[in-house]
Amino acid sequence: MTTTPLVRRHTDRGVAVLTLDSPGNRNALSADLVAELGAALDEAGADNGVRALLLTHTGPAFCAGADLKGGGAGKGPQLLVDLMRQIAMLPKPVVARVDGHVRAGGLGLLAACDISVATAAGSYAFSESRLGLAPSVASLPVLARADRRAAARWIITGERFDTAEAVRIGLVTAWDEALDGILDGMRAASPQGLAASKELTTAAFLRRLDADADELCRHSARLFASPDAAEGVRALLERRDPPWAL
């Protein structure tokens, strides 16, 4: 039986464009989507004709985080860790382009990319605290890339913020207008130069992954197993406020 791909790929002048194409669940990180994205990353990484990668999306969401409806919450943290490590270890830069909502673990995916751009349609929220959870694994790249003090407000409160704020705190590199210049800069660089330069910029994030990822996966699992999280996720799926919301 033929299935519709969840990740589409084409190449544009040496840039492999990977498009998350699961708008029905807001490009949530289901096991199938993560597997397809991982395979596309590997394929592009091994393609000598590819200089860099551009990760984008269809629909109104870049990524909603864990696939809560699909029952993937338990495996979600480790899937995200493995995906973020794969992006960081790839010897080619990965640029994310956001033109919609980014939530929860989707912010971890966004921050794991080497460079990111976004339009004014970008909308961001660490929604975990409102569900009885925390962005345990997503915090690894976020706190390595963004201003920690500024990010604390958004991580703790779960408030939504816009692209201007995401750029200000360093979660997003630049506005969308910068994308052509960024990609042309990569096309002008040597593969060796790109790989060596990326290695410098990802070193701190990879050290955090090595040191903290296992414990943060366990931390996430403990939270997901709690009564608060069960009620928070149930309230989200039922589109109502949880009982602790004042």
UniProtKB/TrEMBL annotation:
One of its GO terms (molecular function) is catalytic activity. CDD domains: crotonase-like. InterPro entries: ClpP/crotonase-like_dom_sf, Enoyl-CoA_hydra/iso, Enoyl-CoA_hydra_C, Enoyl-CoA_Hydratase/Isomerase. It comes from the Bacteria. Belongs to the enoyl-CoA hydratase/isomerase family. This is Enoyl-CoA hydratase. The lineage of its organism: Bacteria, Bacillati, Actinomycetota, Actinomycetes, Kitasatosporales.
